[in-house]
Specification:
By secondary structure, the chain is of the alpha/beta class. It is built from 8 helices and 11 strands. It has a single domain, classed as Acetylglutamate kinase-like (Carbamate kinase, 3-Layer(aba) Sandwich), CATH 3.40.1160. Helix content is 38%, strand content 20%. It is globular, with a radius of gyration of 17 Å. The site of uridine-5'-diphosphate (UDP) has 23 residues, from helix 3 and helix 5. Its main location: cytoplasm.
Amino acid sequence: MKYNRILLKLSGEALMGDLNYGIDPKRLAEYADEIKQIHDKGVEIAIVIGGGNIFRGVAGVSSGMDRVQGDYMGMLATVINGMALQGALEDKGMKTRLQTALKMESIAEPYIKRRAVRHLEKGRIVIFGAGTGNPYFTTDTAAVLRGIEVNADVILKGTRVDGVYDCDPEKNASAVKFDYISFEDVLSKGLNVMDTTAFTLSQENELPIVVFDMNKEGNLVKICEGQNIGTVVTI
Ligand code: UDP
């Protein structure tokens, strides 16, 4: 396998599947199947999951809510998704641990780097919930941060688009996809891969990002095997 230890970032919205809100059990089971394929091949898997299918802090602000309060609600939403994903993975026989950046010890371990690494070494899938534990951040930043902390080889950003394009492929039929692109070129061309905080953290720590279509069966395993079916962002 090309990658031995990965940090998989899944957006909360992806879990909605065909629904308008919340968690689609069918999508959850599909993701668990995809993850099982790489787990069976011995890849060590850490996962950060978003919360946008349930709540986003900025959405609260637009209806008059305090931003910090809203962001904590968003972080709790990621824990709900993390628990759902944990259940789906365990249903398929994988061993998992959920670690949260905000303490909630009756349902999850607190985030402890050394413990997380030990779980990974033992073949357990570690899901990191509650983002970074701080308001004003995103789960993309949490993904890069945890990826660096546990020494992941790569951040795999699973989206509904199959890579990074020179313009929005959903609006422009002639958009061109990059197979590889440097961090610098992403910035100079004003492309959107992750929010700036997440992106520069990845760049500074030379942690590559692969953007790929998580909704296509078999893609996750192809990437871990080294097939370039998405876009690789590197130094
Ligand atoms: N959030 C936060 N700090 C973090 C991570 C997340 O405050 O470190 C909050 C923020 O309000 C965010 C919400 O949790 O809008 C859900 O996360 P995100 O928007 O990254 O989820 P995604 O877009 O991946 O579904």
